[in-house]
Amino acid sequence: MQTPQQLRQHYQYVRQVSEQICAPLVTEDYQIQSIEETSPPKWHLAHVTWFFETFLLKLHSKDYQPFHPQFEILFNSYYETVGKLHPRPKRGLLARPTVKEVYAYRHTVDKAMDVLFDMLEQYPDDKIQSFIELGLNHEQQHQELMCMDIKHNFSVNPLKPAYRSDLPTSPVGNTFAVQWHEQTAGVYEVGHDGNGFAYDNEAPRHPQYVPEFKLANRLVTNGEYLAFIEDGGYQQVDLWLSDGWHHINQYGWQYPLYWQRDGQFWQEMTLGGLRLLNPHEPVSHVSYYEADAYARWAGKRLPTEAEVEIVLAGKPLQGNFFDQEHLHPQPATVDGQWFGDLWAWTATDYHPYPGFKPLEGSAGEYNGKFMCNQKVLRGGCCATSLDHMRVTYRNFFYPHERWAFTGIRMADNASK
Amino acid sequence: MQTPQQLRQHYQYVRQVSEQICAPLVTEDYQIQSIEETSPPKWHLAHVTWFFETFLLKLHSKDYQPFHPQFEILFNSYYETVGKLHPRPKRGLLARPTVKEVYAYRHTVDKAMDVLFDMLEQYPDDKIQSFIELGLNHEQQHQELMCMDIKHNFSVNPLKPAYRSDLPTSPVGNTFAVQWHEQTAGVYEVGHDGNGFAYDNEAPRHPQYVPEFKLANRLVTNGEYLAFIEDGGYQQVDLWLSDGWHHINQYGWQYPLYWQRDGQFWQEMTLGGLRLLNPHEPVSHVSYYEADAYARWAGKRLPTEAEVEIVLAGKPLQGNFFDQEHLHPQPATVDGQWFGDLWAWTATDYHPYPGFKPLEGSAGEYNGKFMCNQKVLRGGCCATSLDHMRVTYRNFFYPHERWAFTGIRMADNASK
Amino acid sequence: MQTPQQLRQHYQYVRQVSEQICAPLVTEDYQIQSIEETSPPKWHLAHVTWFFETFLLKLHSKDYQPFHPQFEILFNSYYETVGKLHPRPKRGLLARPTVKEVYAYRHTVDKAMDVLFDMLEQYPDDKIQSFIELGLNHEQQHQELMCMDIKHNFSVNPLKPAYRSDLPTSPVGNTFAVQWHEQTAGVYEVGHDGNGFAYDNEAPRHPQYVPEFKLANRLVTNGEYLAFIEDGGYQQVDLWLSDGWHHINQYGWQYPLYWQRDGQFWQEMTLGGLRLLNPHEPVSHVSYYEADAYARWAGKRLPTEAEVEIVLAGKPLQGNFFDQEHLHPQPATVDGQWFGDLWAWTATDYHPYPGFKPLEGSAGEYNGKFMCNQKVLRGGCCATSLDHMRVTYRNFFYPHERWAFTGIRMADNASK
Amino acid sequence: MQTPQQLRQHYQYVRQVSEQICAPLVTEDYQIQSIEETSPPKWHLAHVTWFFETFLLKLHSKDYQPFHPQFEILFNSYYETVGKLHPRPKRGLLARPTVKEVYAYRHTVDKAMDVLFDMLEQYPDDKIQSFIELGLNHEQQHQELMCMDIKHNFSVNPLKPAYRSDLPTSPVGNTFAVQWHEQTAGVYEVGHDGNGFAYDNEAPRHPQYVPEFKLANRLVTNGEYLAFIEDGGYQQVDLWLSDGWHHINQYGWQYPLYWQRDGQFWQEMTLGGLRLLNPHEPVSHVSYYEADAYARWAGKRLPTEAEVEIVLAGKPLQGNFFDQEHLHPQPATVDGQWFGDLWAWTATDYHPYPGFKPLEGSAGEYNGKFMCNQKVLRGGCCATSLDHMRVTYRNFFYPHERWAFTGIRMADNASK
């Protein structure tokens, strides 16, 4: 566990990153909630602050006066045991507090946290410190979401504005052939062992029998996915899960979320604005249904989360993360593409590990209650901070969701 | 018809009022669309400008360069013959153009209009001038809507912010007994005679047989409406139109839109923030269904639009308008309450007058195509500019709508 | 008013017609409710019986024992003041009571009514007799609806079964040119004068000023409507009311409800099964929106209900009614087509006549509460019994509804 | 594999059971589809017949003439690769073909199958015989569904009719204390080994590591579930999965599907009509969300499907099945309650086993495409035929579904 000094430094770093993400925004951009699943950047900035106020300052800083009596309702996300919530789809309707007031809220809380750190340096307290650590990881998770949400907010505007006009485009090189990592069958230990920070949903570490399998060393590319489209993939019912088939037909999906066609040319909305589609980049913003159909078309399958974890455990934790400031997936290199770029859908449903125990109190709502109807994704993405990533990290989305930085990694049975 | 000089002055006056309405807003406020029926203030500011750009500058100012090629799509409201539209429910999702850019758009168009006025002073042109007059009335109509929309936008915020904190509250005096204007039966001429500006839907003036009737000299008050509520009005099925009964039950309506209860006390959201409900003020923000049920409960009925017009034609055009800067209905005085305060629902369905001819071209979409499923309202409201009002003015809303400044005026058959 | 003897005979006649309508049905057909607006034939048979049981036997036959304690809930249509209702969209889910039990219910009530008639012959009672008259007109109204509902029920079945295979097809003759009835302006009396039976909504008779106008002597034909379609009528936004335009686009309407295309040929579902579309027959099963758009395209307009009534008042009450057993509109003859065939949409909103008083008690729910958001139709149709028709008869449907036998009659201003 | 002779006998037996299930129905009952998830009994009878016609007679009986050209569309359930489908929610709108015609369809196909059996006795054919076996299991699955659907159809009728009035009620004895089967950790083989019939989704048999666990020897009872309700279980947010909490609040669920309250007393709709709730019977017709919340409240958890299979593999295949003709769950006896009564929800998401291969052709749609968003249930129920049950049988429903015969079995970690 980090010392109070380290934690203070970590706190300052993480808090600053959130504001750095918002630096390119104008006031109006902070306000937008383009779909129910996303939140306005202003809301994110306030909500992560509310977490520190509610779970730390109100409980452990005896002189702390809440910044505003109603922020508890406005900026609670889903902690129903804490109290009333502002309805999620209406976050974009809150003109007030203003952006300026939200920043004032942040800075007031930051100052109060500074006092709390003073106290901790004198009287270290494992429980408080681990809650701060949770708060920082929570804020980092929202940083990822802010990037995803901002991308969606900008995409619905017919003017197709660029969030950042200084983002470089990726080289138009070539796509390396997939190399397959082969793994023998056996009982493997998966999950987090308790050394260092992890979310409750990653524990306990437990044995699991895994048959022999192969895993691709890079993500599926735009070019490969285009071949699926051109082969009529979206029209062949036998490639699709039943729920997926109904979903793509109900919404008229014919290609990934951010693609559009201009005559002969495919374009893609990015955080750098509208760009030509680079066939060598990994295909992004696809649903589980599309990932699964692609895999069936390709004669392969999606990996389980255990398979991905077993392989990732032997790879260096590096890749195209938030820290690289691409904010967009990059073509794989010959060294492979194991972490970063895009959260890869796995075939595994989000479920509790055997013996799973949620955190006590309201923090127990962090993960456990979502363990139904969602799929696990692994590996991090170009909007994930490197120091937020772990081999055992389990992300999760509903199978129809596409606004996150999601991608596809192929697996196969060894016998083939 | 106004001379070009008068028109230029009128133009400057009207355009300035729109900006004056927005003066109390912060940037975030410009962005909100709280329900599908409303529009963000920013959108209103741009849309009324688009009207001048599209129907005047693009057609009659030969050197005029459109401010932005896509504004035609973004800021067209419903003129489907002009071209593609941005979907109405998504107006609140446009962070860009920014508020600042919208003001720049306005000022660019204002300058170009100035040049057009120069031209008109040299070469007057009735057709162009009458289109400018239409554009100004159009902008004034949107000024009303801006007040209504801003009120709704602020109301959905749990912080219940005040749009203007300097608005005075009305005196808590007493409610004057209704006096009934009595009118004999006969064939009356109603509708606009073509002298001065009017919308196409007010013409042609035409005869109509109207039986003997009585019309109340003031609107129904909060106190009177409260008696209806306390008598179980919202629970008595026989007071309600069938569609109304289903609507209030589906949405759980139990009182007017902006009322809320704090223990013993009724409060009301206003443009001046949350206030105690003054029983002497006219009841506002009720649907047609509620107005109709109230009238039935009171043993009276709603007037037809002809009845209201016939009576109003004999009254001085004065009352509580936008110009008074109350932005809230006021208690009636002993002199009666004939114009202003609240648009009074009439029992008449919005329909074309016999021989109605819509304007030619896209302007023909202004009114005619809405002549179905809506009810006519008469008299103007506290957000209407006095110089925008006429005896023959026909406003219209769907019977379930409540966000407008709507109220109730009683009528009765003479025989009673 | 009919004597008790006459009334008994009338009762027997009307009751028998309902069963005659159902004679071609098999048990399964009685059960179907193809859309929310329609009801299963079994439900109609029971509901009209419930009317006599509830409003006559329970009140005036002192020894009468209700047939079944729960039928009051199951077969109440919309008389909310009577008590609880079975939800309208779920009428098709009631397998029990069976068809056989419903007929037993009918016959039990018929016998009890017979006893009531014995009593009335001894002690005539105007109030009771007029309620029986209302009950008979109510049943006749439902006979019309049964024909319409059965047609819809059969139409949704891909097997396209014929309700009656013995219905003759109309001659493929030619279409007569429209002749225009011209009427001078003036104050006319419209509405029912109280002599003989009429619904409450037809009274009181009252003066109305009507400008000079012209009315077509026949309905618009399939052939004429096809010209509208082929001219791109469904694609020209300026022909449509705003609500209509959204409706046809939301539901993808491109032609009348029962039309379908088989290569080159238009077919139409009828009560006699699928048939070739006869261009000389009146176009049927169109919504108000379509009727209105057609009229605009044709350079004409829909008539008001007063205009239709004034003209019909001078014509003999004859035409293609239920009694003719076509159960389908027929081509107009040279004598004109004033009554029957199809209910013609008028431009008039369904509203109370000046001084309208609903019936007392629950029967007051019969008409008044529907006076909002609907349009008046005039003239009767091929499923209306001749002895149920009157010049002042006001039918009403929502503007988007098409399953009724609706059609289009043109009107025009005289000046043209 | 069964010989052709055995198969013919099996065919006759299974086909006869479907008709036996429908024997208590009147014609109207055959027609009802009370919710989208259910189908009318008539449709089931035809659909299982369509399976034999489509996959056997049309392919292998060269003289066979299809009974009706459109039945392929009407009675295809979800085999999209076969061709067009009649929309699922509209199965209840098909009055034709009549019940009588559907029975004629069945008997025509039965006769043609008889000829096919003659051929097979001469020329046995493994592939054809295994398809017949699949068809019979398919029909048995639909027999279960028919019981469930009929129960729901009868339940929505306010008359609460009994499907069979001769079904005995269970004894009001007492509830035995749960005994826990304890199982040590290890790598277990689960899934079907290919000996005898099984669906494709049960294969291949494969190793799985399972930690030490305990499994209850009977289902949770009505009395135990009532304690959960009375403890405010439906109001405590921390007991519920997030999706479950939203679902129960959206639909206002406060108790199992078929419960209702009459003053002090709980009643329950059954296939024998409305009955008093017996607290010793297993609680039935609960969703996964309710089962999961109950388990959390009880301090236990739901088992995985592997855990259930491992334990069931060691128990005799006996219990309260369709063959017992209770058609309702019975109180557990001291010997335990391992099979039958109710399908027990497991915590496992329906997913393909490692190396899963769907059947070839359209039969491949049987199972695989549903492997998303559903939960596995195990053990069979009181509507399952005993000879249709196997230890490895995997049933599956969406977590919100309640109309099936579902129940709750508790599991626990061994360490407790």
Automatic annotation (TrEMBL), chains A, B, C, D:
Superkingdom, taxonomy of origin: Bacteria
Alphabetical UniProt keywords: Iron, Oxidoreductase
Database matches in Pfam families: DinB_2 (PF12867), FGE-sulfatase (PF03781)
SUPFAM superfamilies on file: C-type lectin-like, DinB/YfiT-like putative metalloenzymes
Pathway recorded for this protein: Amino-acid biosynthesis; ergothioneine biosynthesis
Residue ranges constituting the Sulfatase-modifying factor enzyme-like domain according to the UniProt record: 185-336, 339-411
Residue span, DinB-like domain: 12-146
UniProt xrefs under InterPro entries: CTDL_fold, DinB-like, DinB/YfiT-like, EgtB, Sulfatase_Mod_Factor_Kinase, SUMF_dom, SUMF_sf
NCBIfam families according to UniProt: egtB_TIGR03440
Protein name: Ergothioneine biosynthesis protein EgtB
Organism in which the protein naturally occurs: Thiothrix litoralis
